[in-house]
Amino acid sequence: MSAPAPELMTPGKGRGLLDVFHNRYLLRLIVDKEIQIRYRGTVLGLVWSYLKPGVQFAVFFIALGVFLGLNRGLENFAVYLFSGIVLINFFSEIFGNASRSITDNGGLLKKIYLPRQLFPVANLFVAMVHFVPQIIILAIAAFATGWFTGVDVKQVLAIPVACLIIAVFALGLGLIFATFNVFFRDAENFVDMILMVATWASPVLYSWTMVRDQLWDWVYYVYFLNPITVAVELFHYGLWYPTVNDAELWHMPPHLLTIWTPIALVIAVLTMVAGDALFRRHEGNFAQEL
Asked: N or C: which end of the chain has fewer CB within 10 A?
């Protein structure tokens, strides 16, 4: 007897992010390609992963820490500032590059079929390659200011949870805007505006207490519905807070672990599910539109 015919599938349609796990070899090739293209013709190569955040930190530290006096108002302001910068850079690289990943690879998509989700996910892994060196530098700075003597298990676990929230949320937004960008190139401008606002809409350059004390109560609650805000505060809780000598003075936001973190995880996951659904619905028209 002849073998049953395989189930037919609509061309250009896949199983969404599940296809990424079944095409790990292709994913690795795309990640390698993205890294090589990123540093092609450069002299410093991956050293830029250290240099860019270092210059960014120096500018903000001088402008905010020295000129505006936050260095005196926040204990170990350098660790506080750099921990926020590292995480917001992680978000910016995933979201920004994922949103452009389909249009940037339009020539390849018009020639062959492969799961389109590979390109946004590949940018997540490229961002992780750049994220790790920055984490190493941040960990060294935290150790130098007494992190090891003041840390507990919850604070250690807060670090990977913060990274998970950022990775899932940024990838979900990247899938949404990667889809919009194929049909409406104005989406890139919206992405640039979101990235510009994201740094100031989360406690990267200032303390969360400023929002609580100087704005309306409802703004405070909306502020903490932003997963980036929660992730940055978790990073502060895991890396900066153990270095603080006066824990009573520099306390963390109320209900950070019990309420805001679960809410942030749910919002991040729902964003990724919505992004994957939107992406899958329209990916069959990507090659035609490009």
From this structure: N
pLDDT tens for 176-232 read 999 999 998 888 899 999 999 998 999 998 889 889 989 888 999 999 999 999 999
| Residue 243: closest CA among 168, 150, 180 | 150
Structure tokens at 273: 């599910």
Q: Is 74 helix (H, G, I), strand (E, B) or coil?
A: coil
Name the amino acid, one letter, at 244: V
Dist. CA 210–CA 222, nearest whole Å: 14
Cβ-contact 188, 100 below 8 angstroms: yes
Cα–Cα dist 244/99, whole Å: 38
* 263 vs 26: CA distance, rounded Å: 34
Q: Quote the CA–CA distance of 60 and 135 in Å, as a whole number.
A: 18
Question: What's the pLDDT tens digit per position in 87-139?
Answer: 999 999 999 999 999 888 888 887 777 888 899 999 999 999 889 888 888 88
